[in-house]
Automatic annotation (TrEMBL):
It comes from Megalops atlanticus (Tarpon). GO terms for biological process: nucleoside phosphate metabolic process; ribose phosphate metabolic process. Its EC number is 2.7.7.96, 3.6.1.13, 3.6.1.58. One of its GO terms (cellular component) is nucleus. This is ADP-sugar pyrophosphatase. Keywords: Hydrolase. Belongs to the Nudix hydrolase family.
């Protein structure tokens, strides 16, 4: 059951976009002036960032890969990547990820990017709906692709990545959030919000007493 509170009970207009005008365009991204009608019927504008790379067959720019490494007699590990991100000007801790290429499905992109960035061969177990990433700034979208990696598969015994500037970081699923906090204290990097929120949700599920705001 959901409980929706409407801030303006007299809303009559269905909000909608009227037009988009390009303010600046590069190879990978562009800045638009979006003209739209708000719920009160007033016409307004918004500054919107868009990727130029979205393929015509999909509503998703890229995928994020939640990959769990399973090995017999070992704990399960979450596969993360550390890389220098120019827009942030620093190293970040993220899920492996990548943009969808022409004619690729989210599943195909996820397995290709996982192999390129980490060297692991995975198997897709679930795909999320299309999700927005920063809707107050951008129309960028992603899909979460959940992947199992059989660490005992001979192909996964000595994984070799194809991208030299990416470090692969394996953190145990058990105590994932604590490990992230420890890593952030030790190393100068910024964690991606999706990774951190996932760690808090996992902690709330497995050890609710350790998460503030979760009813005991
Ligand atoms: N906004 C960008 N500016 C760039 O100068 N280059 C960019 C941008 N976004 C993507 N790219 C380039 C960098 C890579 O060579 C390719 C593919 O990136 P991909 O690995 O698919 O995605 P990320 O993991 O999100 O980098 O695109």
């Amino acid at each position: 059951m959901s409980n929706v509170r409407n801030a303006d009970k007299n809303t009559k207009t269905v909000p909608h976009v009227v037009k988009e005008e390009i303010i600046a365009a590069g190879k990978w991204a562009r800045l638009d002036k979006t003209t739209y009608v708000d719920p009160s019927g007033k016409t307004r504008t918004w500054e919107t960032v868009k990727r130029t790379t979205r393929q015509s067959h999909t509503a998703t720019d890229g995928v994020q890969i939640l990959a769990i490494l399973n090995r017999a007699h070992h704990k399960d590990f979450v596969v993360l990547v550390k890389q220098f991100r120019p827009p942030m000007g620093c190293y970040t801790l993220e899920f492996p990820a990548g943009l969808i290429d022409d004619n690729e499905s989210a599943e195909t992109t996820a397995l290709r990017e996982l192999k390129e960035e980490t060297g692991y061969k995975g198997e897709v177990v679930r795909v999320s709906p299309v999700m927005c990433l920063d809707p107050g700034l951008s129309n960028c979208t992603t899909q979460f692709v959940m992947v199992n990696i059989n660490g005992d598969d001979p192909d996964n015994l000595n994984p070799t990545q194809e991208l030299e500037f990416i470090d692969v970081i394996l953190l145990p699923l058990d105590g994932f959030q604590i490990r992230i906090d420890e890593l952030l204290q030790k190393e100068d990097m910024v964690v991606d919000a999706k990774v951190y929120i996932y760690s808090v949700a996992l902690q709330a599920f497995t050890k609710p007493s350790e998460v503030p705001a979760v009813r005991q």
